[in-house]
Each structure stands twice: as structure tokens, then as C-alpha cells.
Amino acid sequence: MALAAASATCIIASMALAAGRADDEASPIFGIKIPAGYRDWKLISVAHEEGNLNDLRALLGNDIAIKAYREGKLPFPDGTIIARLAWSYVPSEENDKVFGHAQSFVAGAPTNVQFMVKDSRKYAATGGWGFAQFKDGKPADEALLKTCFPCHEPVKARDFVFTRYAP
Amino acid sequence: MALAAASATCIIASMALAAGRADDEASPIFGIKIPAGYRDWKLISVAHEEGNLNDLRALLGNDIAIKAYREGKLPFPDGTIIARLAWSYVPSEENDKVFGHAQSFVAGAPTNVQFMVKDSRKYAATGGWGFAQFKDGKPADEALLKTCFPCHEPVKARDFVFTRYAP
Q1: Could you give the ipTM of this predicted complex?
Q2: B43 contacts in A (CB within 8 Å)?
Q3: pTM here?
Q4: What's the pLDDT tens digit per position in A40-58?
């Protein structure tokens, strides 16, 4: 392999490794891969979406994200990654029996996972954030990812992040 | 101070430190203090309770808890601690505007935090589990804590733990 081609391959490989696991597919537009170990990150908050989404969700943050949240510091620093996990919204008959009322809803099957990655230079065109969504390890398509930033624009005052920290 | 009294004081102090923060109030019956650093533990799952509770909740586990969950291993080992955090269930007008529908519910003010602590010898009378609840750092009273185990008894087949791990 010619030296120039070998160097190019090395650079691409190291960029891929920096973003996630080397053999996983990167997301269109923003080139994000599933960050290693995200399931172990600390909790930012939880939410429930009715309607078409019909899910229970948890926001997790890497250490940079959690530190920024707890310091109340905006904008989020480069290197911040926020993960949005979600599961289908399922009544729990077992819990309801114990409570004595139909009232309990728990996490069913996972739906998809989304990430926001802060890199103010690389993602300058979208407020400094790259967006990604994965289902069963497969990235969402370009059409969907184009819709991410426009929805987040209204919350520019909180650096485009909707979720507040739950103490 | 006489030697015996000094020894007794040391033993009591070290037991308290082992359980949590030395100057915090222990919970009645089970003697549990708020475990240090629980807010940083990993996520087990999330849920929503309607009715009187009207909350969004997150279950977090210490490393022993998470390991046992991921290995699918019952009973939970001694040293397992599971924390149930909860916040009031609040509609998000800001999110609803973006989604275009009233559908989004987020975490409001914290309500209380509960813990289950596994010690199969100390808590043999209650399936090996000690129970605690705290609000603003203050433990719940004896009357409330007496109700914990009877409610958990129906799920004896899963070592008295209702929550399943959310992948």
C-alpha cells in the first residue's frame, strides 16, 4: 500500500476509534458511533412521552455532561455526550395487584437510543451538537437526522438541551 | 472514658460509617443510613406511578446490584443496594410546543428516596432485605417502614425485587 494511502487509512481508523467502537456503523451527517459504555453513565433525568412515542425514557450523561449539569454551567463543554435511552410504556399487572389500583407503568422493550455529542468546531452549523439515533445498533437514516437540530433550536437558551437535571 | 465504653463507642461508630454518613439519621427498624454516592449509581430501570404517588421514578443500583442484574443471578448477593429515586410527574409545556402535542411529562421536584439493602443474616426476618425511605434527608417513621416487606412478599420468586433490568 502506498504511504499516502496508508496514512489516510490510519487517520480514518483513529477518528473512528475516537468516536466509538471501530467496527460499528457511524451515523449519517454527523458521523457518530455508539459511545462505548454509555449504558453505565450517570442519570440526568427521566421522562414519559405519550402519543406516537409511547415510551419511558432516561437521559444519561458522560462525566463531562454530569459535571456541567451539576455546576449549572452553560454552554456544555466540548466532549459532552448525552444519551437518551427509551423503552416502550407497559402497564405492570404485577405491580398493580400490590398497589391495589391500575397505576403502575414500567419499561418494556427498548425502542431506540439517541445521542447528542458536543464539538463546537466540527458541529458549528448545528449549534455545536452532533445528533445520532440507533436501533439495535443500526444508525437512523439521513432524512431523520436532518430533523434533529431544527427541533432543538427553540431551546437555544439552554444550549439546545431540553432536559434539566433531576436532583 | 472506661476502656469498655470506649470500645463500644468505636464499634458503634464504625458500624454507622459502614452503613452511610456518620452524622446522618438512621432509619427505624432496619438502621439504614443514606448510602454515600447513591446518586451516581448506574441505572436499573425507570417507571411511572399514577394515582396518589403521581411520580416518575428511577431505580439505581450499586455495583453489586448491577452485576447481579446483568448476570441474571438470584438471589441478590449480600451488599446489594437498590435505590428508588422519584420526582413529581409534571407536564412540559416547552416540550409539548416542540412535539406539537400535549404528550411530554418530565421530572419535577424530588418526592422521596427509598433503599433496599441486602444482608441475609441481619435482615433474615424480612427476606434478607432492609428497607428505608428518606425525604430531604429525614428517615420515614416506623409505621411506614413496617409496611415495606409485606408489599414485597408477593415477588418472593424474584428475591422480593419488583423491578426488572432495562437493557
Answers
A1: 0.86
A2: 39, 43, 58, 60, 85
A3: 0.87
A4: 999 999 999 999 999 999 9
